[in-house]
Amino acid sequence: MSRAYLYILSLLLLLVSGSLYSQSMLSPEQVISAVIDNNYDLKAAKQSIAAAQVLTSKENQGYRPTLSVNADVGYSLNGVKQVFNFNFPDLNIQNIQSYSGSVGVGSSYLIYDGGQRDLRNDKNVASLEIANLNLKSIQQLLGYNAMQIYYSIAQAVYNIDLLKESLAISKERLRRAKTYYQYGNTNKVDVLNAEVDAARDSLSLISMQNDIVNLKLQLNQLMLRQDTDYAVDTAFTLLYQLSDINDLEATMLSSNAELIALRKQADLVEYDVALANKLNSPQLLANGAYNLNYQKNSEKSQLDLNRTNGLNLGLSANWNILDGGQQKVQEQLAIIDQNTAVINVKNKENELITQLNRLWNSYQNNLLTLQIEQQNIQTNRVNFDLVKSLYDNGQQSSVEFRQAQVNLINAQSQYYFARTSAKLSEVELEYLLGI
Predict the structure, then answer these.
(1) Residue ranges of the chain with pLDDT lower than 70?
(2) Buried (b) or exposed (e) across 152-183, using 16+ Cβ within 10 A?
(3) What are phi and psi of 81, to 5 degrees?
(4) How far apart are CA 228 and CA 427, in angstroms?
(5) pLDDT for residue 172
(6) E strands within 118-167?
(7) CA nearest 230: which of 19, 33, 34, 17?
(8) What distance in Å separates the CA atoms of residue 276 and residue 163, rounded to the nearest whole number?
(9) What burial class does residue 194 get, using C-beta atoms within 10 Å of its C-beta: 0-12 exposed, 13-18 middle, 19+ buried?
(10) Would residue 127 be called left, alpha or beta, if left means φ above 0 and alpha means ψ between -120 and 50 degrees?
(11) What per-residue string of b and e applies to 368-384 under the rule 16 or more CB within 10 Å gives b?
């Protein structure tokens, strides 16, 4: 291992360390806030809510009358030539001009339609509720994805600290190996092994820092953020260690946004069933119209002026008594959709309960692993200190020293991994609970 190679690795590590010290802290709350404010998926979902709000507006409820106005004007230039077989004089009149115009106002209002209008309005209100639930569900899913990445960064930061500690030990070991070699207390193999381990630790540290940057880029995609010059909070606490699985299940079944949306969807299908039942209900409409027609002819015409006007008011009723079975078909399809919606709700409930039990078992396993690894760290720490003392006194080989070092680092890494895994389980748990 060349000195130049080790120098380059050390320089890269200095650059990495310098960037870490200049970073500002980004809390989980700030991440969630940025995702909610900036994410494009949420912006698209909000447009769906805006569309649903339009459908529930007064203008779309069908309780307002319609009013229309029409008008037209016209000009004509005609000629007449008539030749008779008997002793009547021929008729030949050319350039007969006439002007015409009309104005009309019409209005209609649906008085009764069997309650279909009210059902459609109620369905639109339910659709708006579903749109809001879908928005909440997307927010929770994006928050879940963001926190998964966030705490994965925290895990990588833990590994960075461990790798720094390992690198410092490896550098000290390399220094001692070189000193022992100069005084003839060891051979060149020990020096080369120490150089290889120091280089390996340096490369692992650089690789882990690169992994952190890549994770931050993933998080930035959700937040619509560009720079990666921020740190994450690694001082998190576990919140559900004393929770009861039965209480969590009850909360999940009553609060999970996706499940509530499916239940609302089932309610929405009930409106389709009711509308199908009223498909052939009688309808009663009120109509009104006023029309004014005007025609002015030239002096060559027998009729000089013609004007008519009138007001028409009326009621019209429509009752489709026989429709060839279309209403029955619509009712059957609506009932099938209703049964499907109920099945989807039950299936989702079963799926969520299974996920919760699986997640809870994994969470408990992580908590147990934390306790075991905590003891394992203490054991490996004592072993490492003992081996290090023997190594410093020349009573232990560099290979055994390295193995003790690796064992300690692995124990610490497993502890941090279990701790982060437990936190990730809590993130998923809160997603299932609809928090």
Answers:
(1) 1-23
(2) bbbbbbbbbebbbebbebbbebbebbeebbee
(3) -135, 120
(4) 23
(5) 84
(6) none
(7) 19
(8) 68
(9) buried
(10) alpha
(11) ebbeebeebbeebeeeb
**What does the angle CA 99 – CA 103 – CA 104 come to, to the nearest 5 degrees?**
150
| CB contact at 8 A, 267 and 345 | no
- Residue 86: helix, strand or coil by DSSP? coil
Q: In whole angstroms, give the CA distance from residue 308 to residue 107.
A: 20
What confidence score (pLDDT) does residue 71 get? Answer: 93
Residue of 197, 218, 200 whose CA lies nearest to 208: 200
- Report the distance separating Cα 244 and Cα 242, nearest Å: 7
**Per-residue b/e over 12-26, b at no fewer than 16 CB within 10 Å?**
ebeebeeeeeeeeeb
> Rounded CA gap, 164 and 172, in Å?
12
Q: Indicate if the alpha-carbon torsion angle 376, 378, 381, 383 is positive or negative.
A: negative
State how far the alpha carbon of 337 is from the alpha carbons of 247, 278, 334, 358, in Å.
Answer: 32, 17, 5, 31
Long-range pairs of 360-364 with CB within 8 A, sequence gap ≥ 24: 360/245, 360/248, 360/429, 362/421, 362/425, 363/240, 363/422, 363/425, 363/426, 363/429
Q: Are 276 and 326 in contact (CB under 8 A)?
A: no
Enumerate the domain spans of the chain. 3-64+114-280+323-433
Phi, psi for 254 (deg, rounded to 5): -100, -15
Instruction: Let me know: does 39 contact 222? Beta carbons within 8 Å.
Output: yes
| Residue bearing tokens 């882990």 | 208
- Comparing CA positions, the residue from 392, 423, 417, 265 lying closest to residue 339 is 265
Per-residue pLDDT at 365: 92
Task: Quote the tokens at residue 269.
Answer: 């299908």
Cβ pair 281, 113 in contact under 8 A: yes
Provide CB contacts within 8 A for 200, sequence distance 6+: none
Q: Can you give the pLDDT at residue 393?
A: 82
At 168, which amino acid appears? A
Write the pLDDT tens digit of every residue in 69-121.
999 999 888 877 887 877 778 778 788 888 889 999 999 998 988 888 899 89
Specify the CATH superfamily of domain 3-64+114-280+323-433: Outer membrane efflux proteins (OEP) (1.20.1600.10)
CA dihedral 321, 123, 337, 354 (to 10 degrees): -160
Helix intervals (H) in 56-115:
none
User: Tokens in use for 15?
Assistant: 């650059």
